[in-house]
Specification:
By secondary structure, the protein is of the alpha/beta class. It has helices at about 10-20, 40-45, 60-70, 90-100, 135-140, 160, 175-185, 205-210, 210-225, 235-250, 255-260, 265-270, 275-290, 295-305, 310-325, 325-335; strands at about 1-5, 30-35, 50-55, 75-80, 85, 105-115, 120-125, 155, 190-200. The chain contains 16 helices and nine strands.
Length: about 350
């Protein structure tokens, strides 16, 4: 599948990388998602019968991917955004691997990040955990850095059809992570230790151009969807706690009413009491330092003390906040000043993309 929106600069190269595959039995579904540039015109110049160009009104990435899911006919599904590239052996290596491993439904490989001029910057594997094989549900739920960009992934389509899997139209950033989480709940994965694809970084990438606040709220949607999955309860305590930490302490810090609601969910109450108390305490601490609304800090500290009376940190915070809230705020700010928060740094900020301008 190739969702495309205003991709005139790169889509020709992306299509050529499919035409250049050593595996020839493929179908390329290009979904022009209401482009206003020459994307559709460029794609229509390719008369190969294996290429299908579909037009739709602009609905976003998830909508375009769902259109491709509805009409695809192949046994396997590969992902190629209109600004990325397959290396010549990408499809062949993935399909041969799955053909030899009938018990696996997905496979992923390594590749390179590249800039606008196709200069290779870093390997995909340099920015992700693993590699992992087998049941990856815990790992995918924990964080999105198992696969990285979807261009490196190949899936069997039978599970998609059988379980009516689709992308969440409400997620603008991270619909791939959400989709792979759904798939990982049903499937086992393998890994091919080969560089088979190129993921392009440029200053128009949505992950780079989107504001920190918007990106944060979109990732919160992914977290909430994962928590609401029936398989979430099978994850380890460490994974479930990490998910709630990211959601409650990092992503929803400025949305206290939503935080309160989520801490009443059965999935939160299923955590060990020590972890519930720790999360409530950390919510309070983070809110004291960064939150716009501190109305609920006292309630969270009190609840943390009640849930786990042995949490001495919560007890200390409760006493200091009761006596001198300003002192506690100053102390916490000093502590946080020494800590590094990666969420305040834009994605791929360490890579020099200035040449793309």
């Amino acid at each position: 599948m190739m969702p495309a929106y205003n991709a005139e600069k790169y889509i020709g190269q992306a299509i050529e990388s499919v035409l250049g595959q050593s595996y020839a039995d493929w179908e390329l579904i290009i979904v022009d998602d209401g482009s206003t540039d020459c994307t559709a015109e460029i794609a229509s110049r390719y008369f190969d019968p294996r290429i299908r160009l579909v037009h739709q009104a602009n609905g976003g990435e998830a909508s375009a991917r769902n259109t491709a899911l509805r009409i695809m006919r192949g046994e396997f599904l590969a992902f190629l955004d209109a600004d990325d590239l397959f290396l010549p052996h990408h499809l062949k290596s993935g399909i041969e691997f799955l053909s030899r491993h009938d018990h696996l439904s997905g496979v992923y490989s390594d590749g390179y990040y590249m800039d606008h001029a196709e200069n290779r910057l870093q390997t995909l594997s340099s920015r992700r955990r693993g590699p992992f094989e087998g049941d990856l549900f815990d790992e995918v739920v924990y964080a999105s850095d198992v696969f990285g960009p979807p261009v490196c992934v190949l899936l069997r389509t039978d599970l998609i059809h059988e379980h009516s899997l689709k992308y969440d139209d409400n997620i603008v950033i991270g619909p791939d992570w959400d989709f792979f989480t759904q798939y990982a709940a049903l499937a086992k994965f393998g890994y091919v230790d080969q560089k088979t694809c190129l993921y392009r970084l440029h200053t128009d990438n949505i992950s780079i151009t989107t504001s920190l606040e918007k990106r944060t709220l979109e990732l919160a949607k992914c977290r909430i969807n994962a928590i609401r999955m029936k398989n979430f309860g099978r994850c380890s305590v460490n994974v479930r706690t990490a998910v709630f930490y990211d959601l409650l302490v990092n992503l929803l810090i400025d949305f206290p009413e939503r935080q309160i609601e989520i801490t009443q969910w059965a999935e939160f109450l299923d955590l060990p009491q020590r972890e519930q108390a720790r999360l409530l305490r950390l919510m309070a601490s983070k809110t004291i330092v960064h939150g716009r609304d501190q109305t609920h800090v006292w309630t969270w500290l009190e609840r943390a003390r009640q849930v786990n009376p042995s949490d001495w940190r919560a007890i200390i915070l409760w006493h200091i906040f009761r006596i001198h809230p300003g002192l506690l705020s100053a102390a916490l700010k000093i502590k946080e000043y020494r800590e590094f928060d990666p969420r305040t740094i834009p994605p791929f900020a360490d890579m020099n993309l200035s040449r793309n301008r």
